[in-house]
Automatic annotation (TrEMBL):
Organism placement in taxonomy: Eukaryota, Metazoa, Chordata, Craniata, Vertebrata
Listed Pfam families: TRAP_alpha (PF03896)
Subunit structure: Heterotetramer of TRAP-alpha, TRAP-beta, TRAP-delta and TRAP-gamma.
Primary localisation category: endoplasmic reticulum
InterPro entries documented for this protein: TRAP_alpha (IPR005595)
Taxonomic superkingdom: Eukaryota
Function: TRAP proteins are part of a complex whose function is to bind calcium to the ER membrane and thereby regulate the retention of ER resident proteins. May be involved in the recycling of the translocation apparatus after completion of the translocation process or may function as a membrane-bound chaperone facilitating folding of translocated proteins.
Topology within the bilayer: Single-pass type I membrane protein
Keywords: Calcium, Endoplasmic reticulum, Membrane, Signal, Transmembrane, Transmembrane helix
Protein name: Translocon-associated protein subunit alpha
Recorded domain comment: Shows a remarkable charge distribution with the N-terminus being highly negatively charged, and the cytoplasmic C-terminus positively charged.
Family the UniProt entry places it in: Belongs to the TRAP-alpha family.
Localization in the cell: Endoplasmic reticulum membrane
GO CC field: endoplasmic reticulum membrane
Length: 85
């Protein structure tokens, strides 16, 4: 559950607008997740509406930084095994 983005932007009738919302998921969150983006808006008469403008499964992947702990352990293990043989 991420923080709501309050814009207060007026979009004229028959027009479109694009909004950007950035977030960084926690490290152990890699994998598929349901992502739902609800848009709350109000018309000129003061009527309030809510629409799900995005509702799909997305896959969060970890950024590849080169060497990780598992890779280093594998290299150390293989080096030690090579020295024993």
């Amino acid at each position: 559950n991420f923080t709501a983005l309050q814009l207060g932007t007026v979009v004229p009738p028959a027009r479109q607008a694009t909004f950007e919302y950035s977030f960084i998921p926690a490290e152990p969150m890699g994998g598929p997740f349901g992502l739902v983006i609800n848009l709350n808006y109000e018309d000129s008469a003061g009527n309030v509406f809510q629409d799900a403008v995005f509702n799909q499964t997305v896959t969060v992947t970890e950024k590849e930084d080169g060497l990780d702990g598992e890779t280093i352990f594998t290299y150390v293990f293989l080096s030690a095994l090579g020295l024993l043989i």
